[in-house]
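REVIEWER CHECKLIST
Item 1: Sequence provided? yes
Item 2: Single chain? yes
Item 3: Sequence as submitted:
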Amino acid sequence: MLHILVDLDLELSGAGIRLMFSTLPERARQTIGRTEWWHEVEADGRYQPDLDAALDAVSR
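Item 4: Structure as written out by the authors:
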């Protein structure tokens, strides 16, 4: 399933759409955190701890 998410992210970014993530369950974050792709998501500020923070990040 992770490869589908990565492919979606790449497809959307190719169309100029920035995919944001917030409030993932801890177990999911631990699993996804093992991937280089997720490290890039976090480095780009595309993961936020809650919806308010994600909305703030988008509006910057």
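Item 5: Key structural point noted by reviewer: The first helix runs from residue 2 to 14.
Item 6: Recommendation: ____
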